[in-house]
Structures are given as structure tokens and as C-alpha cells.
Design goal:
Blueprint: E1 7-10, H1 23-31, E2 42-46, E3 60-64
Parallel strand pairs: 1-2
Antiparallel strand pairs: 2-3
């Protein structure tokens, strides 16, 4: 999956976050996340955005979202 297609959301206010082209790819590469481990259930969540925290840098976490209960998931291997 192309990392640039990942949805990015502010974890504080819930607003979608739009990044410069290539930013998601660079961040995931710096974190050591293999793009082959990503799928459509993955999203990036920041701890702020220009709307709720106009100044400063933000941390980013990757989440895998599913409506399946935790005990029913297959074992996951990798960083994502």
C-alpha cells in the first residue's frame, strides 16, 4: 500500500490532517515501518494539528483499526 494514501487524523480534535506529498512516506521510513505491512485498516494519528495547536511540532502514531474483537484477530507480525 502507498503510505501517501493513509488517512491522517488529529487525535485531539478529530480533524483530518493534510500533509505535503511524501511526508507520510518519509515518517514511516524513519520509524522503520515497511510499507508492505500497511493495509487499508491503518491510519496515522497526530497529537495536534494546525486547528487545535497552531504552533509546534506533533508526534505521530500508526494505528490499525478493526471492528473485530482482539481475541479474534490473527497474530500480527511487524511494526504496523
Amino acid at each position: 500500500m502507498d503510505p501517501e494514501l493513509l488517512f491522517v487524523e488529529c487525535g485531539r480534535c478529530g480533524a483530518p490532517v493534510l500533509w505535503d506529498p511524501g511526508r507520510a512516506t518519509r515518517l514511516l521510513a524513519q520509524a522503520g515501518v515497511d510499507p508492505l505491512e500497511l493495509d487499508s485498516s491503518c491510519l496515522l494519528m497526530t497529537d495536534g494539528c494546525p486547528f487545535c495547536r497552531p504552533a509546534g511540532q506533533y508526534t505521530v502514531q500508526i494505528y490499525r483499526v478493526s471492528n473485530v474483537k482482539e481475541g479474534q484477530l490473527p497474530p500480527l507480525v511487524g511494526h504496523a
